[in-house]
Amino acid sequence: MPSHYQQLIDFDQKHIWHPYTSLNHPTPVFPVESASGVRLKLADGRELIDGMSSWWAAVHGYNHPVLNAAVTDQLTKMSHVMFGGLTHQPAVDLAKTLIDISHQDLQHVFFADSGSVSVEVAIKMAIQYWASKGQPQKQRLLTIENAYHGDTFGAMAVCDPDNGMHHLFKDVLAKHLFAKRPQCVDAEHYDPAAIADLQGLLTTHQHSIAAVILEPIVQGAGGMRFYSPAYLKKARELCDEFGVLLILDEIATGFGRTGSLFAYQQADVCPDILCVGKALTGGYMSLAATLCSSKVANGIGSGEYPTLMHGPTFMANPLACAVANASLKLLLDSPWQQRVSAIEQQLRRELEPCRSLSAVKDVRVKGAIGVIELHQPIDIHWIQPRFVELGVWVRPFANLVYVMPPYIMPAEDLSTLTAAMQQVVAEISQK
C-alpha cells in the first residue's frame, strides 16, 4: 500500500468526522481517487462496483459527459449568485420542469440546499399556512413510526423518537405525534385496520395538527421498509376529512427509484407539499426543492403572515440548477422505467435465496431497492472491508444490507453486487 494512501487514512480518521461515526472508534474509510460509470476507483488502484448511488443520488452513474458539460457550460457564466432579489434561467427552467413532471396541483417551488432543509421548509409552510388562516394552534406534525426525514432539528423531530438515529435529542425536539407503522408490505396485503392508529390520532388531535408527513411507499433510513399504496391513499382521504395538510417526503424515492417517477403516483394521490432531493442533480451537487399547491401558497401569502420565512445563502445555486436540468432531461429521455423494472426483477431473483440463511429475517425488493434484513445488527468494522475485498461498495447500517444501484448498471455488475451480498450474509450465518 503506498505510504501516502495510509497517511491520508491516518489523518482522516484522526481529524475528520464521517456520517454517524465516532472519532474515538472510527469506522474504516477507503480513499476514492475517481469514479466513472458504476465504478469507484480507490487510491490504491482497486475498483469497486457501486451499489449505493452515493446514498441514492447518482442515478446516472459517475463522470457522465452530459452532466459534466452542463456544469462546465454554466461555470463559464456564473457559479453562484444570490437568489434574494435576483433570478436566473437555470432556476426558472428547473422550476418549470418540476412543475411539469409532478402533479398538476403542485405549482410553486422553493429551492433548498439539502433534503433536510427541504423538510424544514415544508414544516414551516404547513405551520405558516394555518397561522395565516387564523388557526395558529395547528403546529404539530403527525407521522408514523420508523420515519426518517433528515438530520436538522425540525426534520429530526419527525424522525422516530425511540428507534431512530436521533433518540438522543428527543427531549429537546418539538413533540409531534407518531402512529404505528403499517405492516402491510404491498397492495395485495393491505389491511384496512392498518390505518386505525393514524385515524385515531387525527380524530383526537385534529385541531392541533398542521400536517401529516410521510415517506410514500418506502421508509428509507428508518429501516428500508415498504408499505401498501392503499395506506397512503387512505391517509390522503383522512387528511382531507380532518382538515390537515399532507406532506410527502420523496427525497429518497423521487425520480424513478420505486418504479414510478414519484412514489405517490402509485397511490394516485397528490400531496399538499412535496419534498424532493438526492437524485435531483444526478448526485453532482447538493440541491433539493419543496413544491406546494396553490392552496398552500395562496393561503400563506394572503394571510396575516404572508412571507415564507426561509432563505438559504446558496438557494437556487446556478451550477446546481444547471446540472439538475441536465440530469432530469437525461432521465426523462432515457428508458428509465425499463431499467428500473429490470433491476427490480433481477434483485428479486438473485436476493431471494438469502431468505433461507439463518441470519436473515427478511428479503424485500421495491423498484431499484434491494434489502436483506438480518436478525442482529451488523459489525460495520468487519462487513465494510469484506465488501471491498469482494470488489463492491455496499454500505450497510443497523441490521440492513441493502443496495440502491445506479439505473444504468449492467446486469453482470448487478449480479456481482448480489453475489457479494449473498456471500457476506452467508458468512454471517456461519458465525
The poorly predicted ranges are none
SS content category: alpha/beta
* Strand segment tally: 16
Q: Hey, roughly how much beta strand do the residues contain?
A: 15-25%
The CATH topology assignment of the largest domain is Aspartate Aminotransferase, domain 2
Architecture per CATH nomenclature, i.e. the level-2 architecture of the largest domain: 3-Layer(aba) Sandwich
From the N-terminal CA to the C-terminal CA, the straight-line distance is 30 Å
The CATH class label of the largest domain is: Alpha Beta
Q: Can you tell me the number of structural domains?
A: 2
> Could you describe the largest sheet, including whether it forms a barrel?
7 strands, mixed
How many helices does DSSP assign?
Answer: 13
CATH superfamily of the largest domain: Type I PLP-dependent aspartate aminotransferase-like (Major domain)
Q: What is the helix content?
A: 25-40%
- Integer average pLDDT: 96
Which strands sit side by side, in order, in the main sheet? Answer: 4-12-11-10-7-5-6
The helix/strand series, from N terminus to C terminus, equals HEEEHHHEHEHEHEEEHEEEHHHEEHEEH
